[in-house]
C-alpha cells in the first residue's frame, strides 16, 4: 500500500490543473477532449458521451426516453463470493457515482430531440464567459434543468447506497452528478465534485445560498455585493472545488471497498479516485451496464442496472433497503451545507 500522504499530494496536483490539461490518459478519451468537469453534464447534458456504454449509439437506437427502461430491463448478475467476503466485513466504503446513476432515474440528456434548448451546445451555456455575455439565457437553462430534476426521483440504487450505513461504520459518496439524489435518498456523507444545481453562488464574492426563492427567481438574482448569482456548479474552464475533492480523495484512500457506479471512469481528475483507492489497497467493484475502458482495474465488474445490483449487494450482506426517502428540504452535502454558507438577502433578488 502506498503512503497516503504521497497519494494526496499527487492527486491534489491533478485537481489544481486547468481543465484543458486534465485529460484522461486513454487515447480515445483524450481524443474526445474531455475537461475535468464534463461529467456534470451526465444528466440533461453530455449523457450521450458519458453514459457508461462502449458506444454512444445505444442512446440513438433506444432514444433518450427509453434509455432508463433499457438499463432497467437488464438481468441482475450473480454476486461473486469474493465480493461478498470483502464487502461483508468492510467498515469503510467509498462509492463513486456518475451519469449512469441519474440516467436510471429517467433524466433525459441535454440533446434530447425537440427540446427548447436543442439549438445550443452545452459549452455555449456552461462557461463563465457565457454567463458574462448572456446571464439570463444561462439562468433560464438551469431553471429548465431544475424542473426536470424536480420531476424525477432517486431510484432503488440511490437508496441502497444510503442503507449500507446500517452495516458499515462509514459510507462516503463522491458524485459527479449535481442533482442531489444521493441526499434525497438518505446518504449523509456526500462529496459533490461538480457542485449542486440546487445552490447558487455569487460570481463576484463567491457567497453561497440554497434558498429555493432565489433559485426559483425568474430573472438572475443579485448578491448584496451587487454581483450576479449563478448556479453553484463547476463550468467549463473551472477546476473542481479543492476542499471537496480532497475530502473525497481521503475517503477513497482510506476505504476498504470502493464502488464505481454509472461512470465512464475516464474523466479526470475525478476518475483519479479510482487510481487512489486501488493504490491504497481497496477492493474495487465496478457497476455499469457495459464495460468501460478501465474495467480491467477492478477486482469485480457487475454488468446491469445500479438500481437492481446495489439492492442485491445490500441483501447478500444482510441489509434491508428502505423504500422511503429523506424529507424534502433536508438535503445537505458534506462541505456544501447551506448552514455553512452566508446567505443572500431576499431583497437582493432580481
Can you describe this structure?
The structure is a single chain. This protein has 350 residues and is an alpha/beta fold. The chain has one domain: 3-Layer(aba) Sandwich (Rossmann fold), CATH 3.40.50.1220. It has helices at 4-16, 27-32, 47-50, 57-62, 64-72, 81-87, 99-103, 122-125, 128-133, 135-151, 156-163, 181-185, 212-215, 242-254, 272-279, 306-316; strands spanning 92-97, 170-175, 190-192, 195-202, 208-209, 229-233, 257-261, 283-288, 300-303. The strands form two sheets. A six-stranded parallel sheet has the order 3-2-1-7-8-9, sandwiched between helices. The protein is globular and about 60 Å long.
Can I get a quick summary?
The protein is of the alpha/beta class. Helices cover 36% and strands 13% of the residues.
Average pLDDT figure: 77
**Low-confidence runs:** 15-64, 327-350
Task: Supply Rg.
Answer: 19 Å
Question: Helix/strand-derived class?
Answer: alpha/beta
* Largest sheet, strands/sense/barrel: 6 strands, parallel
CATH architecture: 3-Layer(aba) Sandwich
- CATH level 1 name: Alpha Beta
CATH fold call: Rossmann fold
Fraction of residues in helix:
25-40%
Strand order of the largest sheet: 3-2-1-7-8-9
| Total number of strands | 9
**How far is it from the N-terminal to the C-terminal residue, by CA?**
53 Å
Instruction: Give the overall shape.
Output: globular
Order of helices and strands: HHHHHHEHHHHHEHEEEHEHEHEEH
CATH superfamily (homologous) name: TPP-binding domain
- SS element count, helices: 16
Number of domains: 1
Give the percentage of residues in beta strands. Answer: 5-15%
Amino acid at each position: 500500500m502506498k503512503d497516503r500522504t504521497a497519494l494526496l499530494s499527487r492527486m491534489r496536483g491533478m485537481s489544481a490543473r486547468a481543465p484543458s490539461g486534465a485529460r484522461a490518459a486513454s487515447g480515445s478519451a483524450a481524443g474526445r477532449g474531455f475537461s475535468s468537469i464534463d461529467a456534470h453534464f451526465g444528466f440533461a447534458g453530455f449523457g450521450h458521451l458519458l453514459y457508461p456504454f462502449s458506444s454512444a449509439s445505444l442512446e440513438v437506437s433506444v432514444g433518450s426516453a427509453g434509455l432508463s427502461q433499457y438499463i432497467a430491463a437488464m438481468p441482475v448478475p450473480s454476486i461473486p463470493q469474493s465480493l461478498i467476503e470483502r464487502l461483508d466485513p468492510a467498515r469503510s466504503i467509498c462509492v463513486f457515482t456518475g451519469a449512469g446513476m441519474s440516467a436510471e432515474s429517467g433524466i433525459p440528456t441535454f440533446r434530447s430531440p425537440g427540446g427548447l434548448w436543442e439549438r445550443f451546445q452545452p459549452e455555449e451555456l456552461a462557461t463563465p464567459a457565457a454567463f458574462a455575455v448572456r446571464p439570463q439565457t444561462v439562468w433560464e437553462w438551469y431553471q429548465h434543468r431544475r424542473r426536470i430534476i424536480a420531476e424525477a426521483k432517486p431510484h432503488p440504487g440511490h437508496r441502497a447506497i444510503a442503507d449500507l450505513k446500517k452495516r458499515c461504520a462509514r459510507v462516503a459518496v463522491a458524485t459527479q452528478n449535481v442533482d442531489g439524489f444521493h441526499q434525497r435518498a438518505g446518504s449523509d456523507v456526500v462529496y459533490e465534485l461538480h457542485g449542486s444545481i440546487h445552490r447558487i453562488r455569487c460570481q463576484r464574492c463567491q457567497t453561497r445560498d440554497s434558498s429555493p426563492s432565489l433559485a426559483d427567481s425568474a430573472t438572475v438574482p443579485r448578491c448584496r455585493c451587487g454581483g450576479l448569482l449563478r448556479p453553484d456548479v463547476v463550468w467549463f474552464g473551472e477546476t473542481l472545488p479543492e476542499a471537496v475533492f480532497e475530502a473525497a480523495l481521503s475517503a477513497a484512500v482510506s476505504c476498504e471497498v470502493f464502488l464505481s457506479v454509472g461512470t465512464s471512469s475516464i474523466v479526470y481528475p475525478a476518475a483519479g479516485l479510482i487510481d487512489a483507492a486501488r493504490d491504497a489497497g481497496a477492493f474495487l467493484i465496478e457497476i455499469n451496464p457495459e464495460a468501460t475502458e478501465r474495467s480491467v482495474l477492478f477486482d469485480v465488474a457487475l454488468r446491469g442496472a445500479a438500481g437492481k445490483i446495489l439492492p442485491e449487494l445490500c441483501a447478500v450482506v444482510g441489509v434491508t433497503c428502505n423504500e422511503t426517502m429523506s424529507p424534502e428540504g433536508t438535503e445537505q452535502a458534506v462541505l456544501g451545507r447551506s448552514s455553512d454558507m452566508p446567505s443572500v438577502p431576499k431583497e437582493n433578488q432580481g
